[in-house]
Amino acid sequence: MAETALGMATTLVGSALSVVSSAAKEEVGLLLGVQDDIWFINDELKMMSAFLRTTSVAERNTEVLKAYLELIRDLSYDTEDCFEEFLVMIKHRSMLQQCLSLGARHRIAMQIRTIKQRIQGLNQRRERYKLIQHRHTISDDVKGDFQVTRNFAALYTEEAQLVGFERPKSELLNMISRRTDGRNVVSVVGMGGLGKTTLAKKVYDSNELHSRFVKRAWITVSQSFSHIELLKNVIKQLLGGRVHEETGGEIFRDDFATWNSIQYAFPDHNSENCCVVVTTRNIDVAKVCSSHYPDHIYHLKHLEKEHAKELLLKKIHQTKDPQVFSQKKGPEEDKLVDEILKKCGGLPLAIVTIGGLLANKGINEWKSLRDQLPEELASSNPSVEALRQVVTLSYNHLPSHLKPCFLYLSLFPEDFEIKRKHLVNRWIAEGFVVRIGTARRTLEGVAESYFYELISRSLIQPSKLGILGNVKSCRVHDIVHDIAVSISREENHVFLVDEHTSTTSATEQTIRHLSFFAEKNLNKGLVLSGVRSITVFNKIQLAPFHLSRFKMLRVLDLKYAASIRSRKQDINIGSLIHLKYLHFPSFERHDYTLPRSIGDLKSLQTLDIGYSRLANLPTEITKLQNLRNLRCTNSDEIFCFDIHDYIECMTTVTTPICFIDNNNGEAACCFCFVTNSDGVRVPKGVGRLQELQVLEKVDIRRSSDKAIKELGELAQLKKLVVQAEEGTPKRKCKIFSMALGNLSSLRSFSVNASGLVDSWVMDSLISDSLPLPSLESLTLSGHLGKLPSWVGESVNLVKIKLICCRIKEVDALAELPNLILLHLGYEAYSAEQLVFHRHAFPKLRTFRLEDLKRLREVAYEEGTSSHLEGIDIYDCKLTLRLTGIKHLTNLREVSIRGCILANADMLREEVDAHHNHPVLQIDRVSIFVPVEDSLSELGENSQS
């Protein structure tokens, strides 16, 4: 694993160099008497970085080189920690003066000089053991800037539509359709990397399954799954508001206990309406799951040569067009492709992984990679270890800036769905993302390019797509995840606390990342002073612990945790001066106010306190000049809790400093501002947060005039969510409307005033605004009557959601050239008829209607909405007619639920005659038959 250690050392030296370069530019080093030492360290790290980038692993020196690289790794971590502390002190000038007067000057100077001595020692060892040899093979340098386009995700999401899966899909659907006397369980079995999950997903999303099963559920079961959470997930999907009906697409680990523990939750009869699909590597597990019907086991085979070649070329050339393959393919390339395919053995995971690695590389590099592929993959019974070698090869050839991003995935549980925004914001907080070249690109933009590059290399897999084709979340294949965990543990990158972790587990090395998958007490002997991130999953409730132990903490992510119960003296959030990412749990929050020490977190970039009891943001929040994301949403369930039941919590967060522990209940009751709003009051001075990209959710009524006006000064703001409740003065609405017009960078805007009867509040909030040139997503919730003119002039809008607006026409929206999604929710539209005229909605792909009480007819004229793919109508109570479906040339799906449908038979006929054969789902629908039709039928029957 010397190659892995080399890549890790190269990355860490680069990260340390970035921090030291910043410190070298500061004149404060002169005060400490170490300015020359800082420049020496800076220059040496530059040389060290250059040497590492040209180093190859000599076969006879791998163990010596590995030991040397581990010394570089530890030096890089310690250097970065030392200089991070140095830079934070510079930002806190008062702290610097205090430290200098208290004698800390000598300690800091000694640390810097010690680092200098360690570098000199490493240089001597390098020369002594002749460790550096020039690299003649594949370079890991970036071949140009990786650009993200909206079509990119669509290319890679079904790479995985893969190729060659049509016949297996058809055969699996036939198994699912067989009638049985009891529970129908179909098992898909095959080795890892063969595409079992891909096949199951293709079947799950197919039109054939949609037409047969109205409701469906898809579950991923990891090694540390919870039975209760799993069954709750099934129920939520089957009974939730937007779920589609009844097949279980289940993915289980390869053990009997998993299946035996949950099988009885599924019906044991009525196989025509219920089927469970299981994927497994273990044939014995498949036999147990499908024990009643052994012929319901599907053995997935390797890809045929033709399909394997198509898939590899698709990955190499990053296109779906087969003509491009033939145009780019020369005779030498064709021969190499065949040789590489032979070594891949028809395994899709191996093919897409090596294909992503070959992209944008020359013939010589192709030959080198061909020679490094394990021969075992081509055997009749390849092992998982051979696949792991392919993934490791892909990791070793990652550009240095992507390696820490990939290893960071080891902090998440196996098969976990990771949200893109969550991941990239954490990468930024960890310092993995560096803006180089084009100054206009934001850190978020650079981080997303890293994300999509990992997708292009098939190291992460898209899970959910947005309406624009962008990837909303991703997963990591279990084999790829195993590699990330293995490398991270070897490099001492992470310490994972799971069910198998012994309470006596310890390591002499400093841990950098700590992730909890299970409730365990940590060994007191663990070295935690260098921990940079703490992540908690599975709604674990941590025992009280002292955050002061984690002096270098950058990321505290409790998004997926249960509440933390701790004593006041255990938590002092303001002491975490390096913290850049702070995310509290949702829904079970018991926080009523933030401590004033939050203002000491000068480096904080992301603060997320979603769905808490928080009503006000303290003034100290305006000191956080580096803040980029601020999400604070007051829980809409505030009316249903007893405050005394929730009082055992983080007391420095819940109560002001003047209250003592014995009076927590009374203090919180007095201090908490009980409100029906789910927004929070923002303080004066919010305009100083010039780096802010995301702000939600602002309560207009309780925020001051000055604070509302300052919202217009947030020039970098990309997303804004606001709330206006009963009693909001018209004056404040006007001030906000003027501020909104100044936000030229805004891409997403949402305003909620749905609890108000009068329309003047919404009119005042948004009527005076100018067209927002960058706006892509708009949500308006509240009585309007008529949309403001600027909405129709915001030509970049792609998503619009209206609730309670009571508009009577949509002509202004119909002309928007880029609108893709239109959602008309509760009482958004007050007319009885909605007509899609000729040439209206030229780019619309998805149209949703929900809970419209007055609507009687939706009609599509010829030549309208040529891109419309999906119509979703839910809970429209009055008699509804849907006509003109035949004019929608690109229609794929029509879903009608909870409605009274007047022309059900006619609609079915129109759908059946449609050239696209769209899926029609009708669920919990009452069929309305007009009286005159019933009488005529009765007359005809009597005459006969």
From TrEMBL:
<comment type="similarity">
    <text>Belongs to the disease resistance NB-LRR family.</text>
</comment>
<dbReference type="InterPro" id="IPR044974">
    <property type="entry name" value="Disease_R_plants"/>
</dbReference>
<keyword id="KW-0433">Leucine-rich repeat</keyword>
<dbReference type="Pfam" id="PF00931">
    <property type="entry name" value="NB-ARC"/>
</dbReference>
<feature type="domain" description="Disease resistance N-terminal">
    <location>
        <begin position="13"/>
        <end position="97"/>
    </location>
</feature>
<feature type="domain" description="NB-ARC">
    <location>
        <begin position="257"/>
        <end position="320"/>
    </location>
</feature>
<feature type="domain" description="Disease resistance R13L4/SHOC-2-like LRR">
    <location>
        <begin position="678"/>
        <end position="920"/>
    </location>
</feature>
<dbReference type="InterPro" id="IPR038005">
    <property type="entry name" value="RX-like_CC"/>
</dbReference>
<dbReference type="Pfam" id="PF18052">
    <property type="entry name" value="Rx_N"/>
</dbReference>
<dbReference type="InterPro" id="IPR055414">
    <property type="entry name" value="LRR_R13L4/SHOC2-like"/>
</dbReference>
<protein>
    <recommendedName>
        <fullName>NB-ARC domain-containing protein</fullName>
    </recommendedName>
</protein>
<dbReference type="InterPro" id="IPR058922">
    <property type="entry name" value="WHD_DRP"/>
</dbReference>
<keyword id="KW-0611">Plant defense</keyword>
<dbReference type="GO" id="GO:0043531">
    <property type="term" value="F:ADP binding"/>
</dbReference>
<dbReference type="Pfam" id="PF23559">
    <property type="entry name" value="WHD_DRP"/>
</dbReference>
<dbReference type="GO" id="GO:0002758">
    <property type="term" value="P:innate immune response-activating signaling pathway"/>
</dbReference>
<dbReference type="GO" id="GO:0042742">
    <property type="term" value="P:defense response to bacterium"/>
</dbReference>
<feature type="domain" description="Disease resistance R13L4/SHOC-2-like LRR">
    <location>
        <begin position="531"/>
        <end position="636"/>
    </location>
</feature>
<dbReference type="InterPro" id="IPR002182">
    <property type="entry name" value="NB-ARC"/>
</dbReference>
<dbReference type="InterPro" id="IPR041118">
    <property type="entry name" value="Rx_N"/>
</dbReference>
<feature type="domain" description="NB-ARC">
    <location>
        <begin position="167"/>
        <end position="239"/>
    </location>
</feature>
<dbReference type="InterPro" id="IPR027417">
    <property type="entry name" value="P-loop_NTPase"/>
</dbReference>
<keyword id="KW-0677">Repeat</keyword>
<dbReference type="Pfam" id="PF23598">
    <property type="entry name" value="LRR_14"/>
</dbReference>
<dbReference type="InterPro" id="IPR032675">
    <property type="entry name" value="LRR_dom_sf"/>
</dbReference>
<keyword id="KW-0175">Coiled coil</keyword>
<dbReference type="InterPro" id="IPR036388">
    <property type="entry name" value="WH-like_DNA-bd_sf"/>
</dbReference>
<feature type="domain" description="Disease resistance protein winged helix">
    <location>
        <begin position="411"/>
        <end position="484"/>
    </location>
</feature>
<dbReference type="GO" id="GO:0009626">
    <property type="term" value="P:plant-type hypersensitive response"/>
</dbReference>
<dbReference type="InterPro" id="IPR042197">
    <property type="entry name" value="Apaf_helical"/>
</dbReference>
<keyword id="KW-0547">Nucleotide-binding</keyword>
